[in-house]
Design goal:
The chain is 39% helix and 21% strand. The protein has 258 residues and is α/β, with parallel strands linked by helices. A 6-stranded mixed β-sheet has the order 6-1-5-8-11-12. A two-stranded antiparallel sheet has the order 2-3. The chain has a two-stranded antiparallel ribbon with strand order 4-7. Helix 4 packs parallel to helix 5. The chain is globular. GO terms for molecular function: ATP binding; ATP-dependent peptidase activity; serine-type endopeptidase activity. It comes from Streptantibioticus silvisoli. This is Lon proteolytic domain-containing protein.
């Protein structure tokens, strides 16, 4: 056997060994999939998601659904086979572990998610009352959504508060009786921001019956890459745009879509 042949055989064996190690070694990756959805106009775990004190509350029809993604636990071992499997599926995606879990411990992750949720709720309350021209010193809003963290429900919380107190401003529902889902952060001034995971979230929305999905305009490209059949994806930049889009849909008019 020539020295060249021996060298090639040795290199081949090394490559095979490295591939074997790569196949079984855990990777710094998290697998995400469509998560739960919750109607902010209703109840969860036996408690109303939105409570209002200091203003009358309407009886509403339809649903306003916030949506989430579900990720593997921060300590889960993800291997190359899992990543390859996710690559060929539309209901799974592989994400850098640190992008999903930037904190170093489970308690820190939970604390960060809870802090972002509280900030989101405060901004949603301020944006809704600002739109309704109601004083926060007179009208108190309670927001409770157990088991969910992060800032992505801001837009839907805001719409839910407005629907419960004022509806469409003419005695009707913002939803027009439809199942409306959406995602996006909110600022006190009513600006809607991107949150990520929109492809998985729209699948969760359609799975749970939504026919309209409000999405931050900045994520429109991602949203239209894999749009479930029967779901109308509507891009918005602001709370006012979201309200206008819902009014147009209820009236049977045209709206921008992704």
């Amino acid at each position: 056997m020539s020295s060249r042949t021996v060298a090639i055989a040795a290199c081949s064996a090394l490559v095979v060994a490295l591939l074997a190690v790569a196949g079984f070694a855990p990777l710094p990756v998290t697998i995400a999939e469509p998560g739960l959805t919750a109607n902010v106009l209703g109840s969860r775990s036996g408690a109303k998601v939105i409570t209002v004190t200091g203003a009358p509350v309407r009886r509403t029809a339809g649903q306003l659904r916030m949506v989430t993604i579900s990720a593997t636990e921060p300590w889960a071992a993800i291997h190359l086979s899992d990543v390859v499997g996710a690559w060929f599926r539309t209901d799974e995606t592989a994400l850098p572990h640190d992008a999903v879990y930037p904190a170093t411990s489970v308690k820190q992750v939970e604390a960060q998610n809870n802090a972002e949720m509280r900030q989101s709720q405060d901004a949603a309350t301020a944006a809704a009352l600002r739109h309704l021209k109601l004083s926060p010193s007179k009208v108190k809003i309670g927001l409770r959504l157990s088991g969910v963290g992060g800032p992505s429900a801001g837009l839907m919380f805001t719409l839910g508060i407005i629907d419960l107190i004022d509806g469409d401003g003419h005695g009707g529902d913002l939803t027009g009786g439809r199942d409306i889902a959406g995602t996006g952060t909110i600022t006190t001034a009513g600006a809607v921001g991107a949150v990520g995971g929109v492809q998985l979230k729209e699948q969760a929305a359609r799975r749970d019956g939504a026919t309209v999905f409000l999405v931050p305009r900045a994520e429109c490209t991602d949203a239209k890459a894999v749009t479930p059949a029967g779901l109308r994806v509507v891009p918005v930049d602001t709370l006012d745009q979201a309200l206008s889009a819902l009014a147009a849909i209820d009236a049977g008019g045209r709206t921008a879509t992704c």
